[in-house]
Amino acid sequence: MHPLIHITGLCKSYGAIQVLHGIDLSVKAGEVVVVIGPSGSGKSTLIRCINLLEEYQGGVVLVDGIAVQRGAGLAQVRAEVGMVFQSFNLFPHLTVQDNVALGPLRVKHLSKEVSHRTAQELLARVGMADHAHKFPAQLSGGQQQRVAIARALAMEPKVILFDEPTSALDPEMVGEVLDVMQALAKSGVTMVVVTHEMGFARRVADRVIFMDAGRIVEQASPEPFFNAPQEPRTQAFLKAIL
Ligand code: ADP
Ligand code: MG
């Protein structure tokens, strides 16, 4: 079976400045990969290339065997790759329920009844069933992020990419979002998570990847990664943050 995400030799520049230098990364179905590294190391750029939120200049990105590039397959790739951002990005003029139901209605062309029933189930899954008729502004940051996760799930993606999903939250709300993510991971959702939450990485990741200066420096399962990092740059980074 081919990996769900298969990236080889990915190179990306912004103008004249190259920020990804030949990334190779494969992610299997059901795997949880946590990406860590200093600010500016290319973590966001890497995951944004997986659904072509960023164009790239070199290498190959395949999702479920389909090339991620401009053209016919892109809509399908986008539907298969969910994304959860630091800044929630809910539609402010739509209720929680409508935020979650919108993708299935518009993109999957499901009936109003089916998409709203699915939205209810997903809101229950993230502990937000009682807030379905509120607007995003009436929710805390942690609640908004849980809705954003439900909205991503509504498209039944093959993988969900998370870009620092708890970095914009007040500290007391970080745990509720990480708990939801941990439950997703347990239920077999394939996830690539950029985060600074090392406890989450230790508990939930199948594999931890350390990036620096546009390259993957080191990767391992959490136990060896945190207890016996091999590369000096990884050691220095962990020493500074732990
Ligand atoms: P990280 O997520 O690890 O903090 P990023 O992927 O956001 O890193 O950024 C990698 C590099 O690319 C940084 O040097 C950053 O300044 C640069 N960069 C990111 N986005 C843009 C952009 N839209 N235009 C120009 N440079 C960018
Ligand atoms: Mg980033």
UniProtKB/TrEMBL annotation:
**What UniProt keywords apply to this chain's record, in alphabetical order?**
ATP-binding, Cell membrane, Membrane, Nucleotide-binding, Transport
Pfam families attached to this UniProt entry: ABC_tran
| InterPro entries (alphabetical) | AAA+_ATPase (IPR003593), ABC_ATPase_HisP-typ (IPR030679), ABC_transporter-like_ATP-bd (IPR003439), ABC_transporter-like_CS (IPR017871), MetN_ABC_transporter-like (IPR050086), P-loop_NTPase (IPR027417)
Which Gene3D superfamilies is this protein grouped with?
A: P-loop containing nucleotide triphosphate hydrolases
Domain spans labelled ABC transporter: 5-238
Under Gene Ontology molecular function, one entry of this record is:
ATP hydrolysis activity
User: Which PANTHER family does the record cross-reference, listed alphabetically?
Assistant: AMINO ACID IMPORT ATP-BINDING PROTEIN, PHOSPHONATES IMPORT ATP-BINDING PROTEIN PHNC
Family stated for the protein in its record: Belongs to the ABC transporter superfamily.
Q: What name is this protein filed under?
A: Peptide ABC transporter ATP-binding protein
- What organism is listed for this UniProt entry? Rhodoferax lacus
